[in-house]
Amino acid sequence: MSFEDAAGIPMAFLTAYYALHTLARMKAGDRVLIHAAAGGVGLAAVRLAQAAGAEIYASAGNPEKREFLRTLGVRHVMDSRSLEFADEVSTQTGGHGVDIVLNSLAGEFIPKSLSLLSEGGRFLEIGKRDIWTASQAQQFRGAISYHAVALDRMMLEEPVQVEHSSPK
Predict the structure, then answer these.
(1) What is the domain range of residue 78?
(2) Does any domain span residue 30?
(3) Helix (H, G, I), strand (E, B), or coil: what is residue 165?
(4) What is the CATH number of the domain that holds 141?
(5) Which residues, 6 or more positions from 17, have their beta carbon under 8 angstroms from its beta carbon?
(6) Would 161 be classed as within a structural domain?
(7) Could you tell me what percent of the chain has a pLDDT over 90?
């Protein structure tokens, strides 16, 4: 593994951890849809979801990546280049959908993924294109939470200075 590849691992795990544990409060038994699960953040999310005891539904862009996910123990694996993933997830969950979506896909994949969320579900957007607002997502789906996650941008923000007055 190159130094550059190795250096990216902490950011992938930090992103996945912040999204799944801090924002979505993932727990054992949650059904989690992880798009692009064979990528850096996706693989980190798979490992974190497995450790938490969540049921994983994963998408990947080609047969080799999908097979790789199966070798990691992921039972529900779909094609991330086809909108058919939504019907597959719905069938596999008996129409109940998922509790959490970790999304990095754009365009029509966003409403399809939102449509899979159960009541009170959490949608975590880590993509860089077609970012919705929380109100757009809630108008489309109702009682869900929506978070756009960009740790790289959070780290660039200036720290907030708090002024304290001394007691007299």
Answers:
(1) 3-95+110-153
(2) yes
(3) coil
(4) 3.40.50.720
(5) 44, 48
(6) no
(7) 71
CA distance 25 to 148: 15
Phi, psi of 41 (to 5 degrees): -65, -35
Could you give the number of structural domains in the chain?
1
Residue 84 falls inside a structural domain: yes
- Longest Cα–Cα distance of the chain, Å, equals 70
Q: Which amino acid is at 1?
A: M
* 165 domain residue, yes or no: no
Do residues 149 and 123 lie in contact, with contact meaning Cβ atoms separated by under 8 Å? no
pTM for the predicted model, two decimal places: 0.87
**pLDDT tens profile 33-50:** 999 999 999 999 999 999
Tens of pLDDT, residue by residue over 76-91, are: 999 999 999 999 999 9
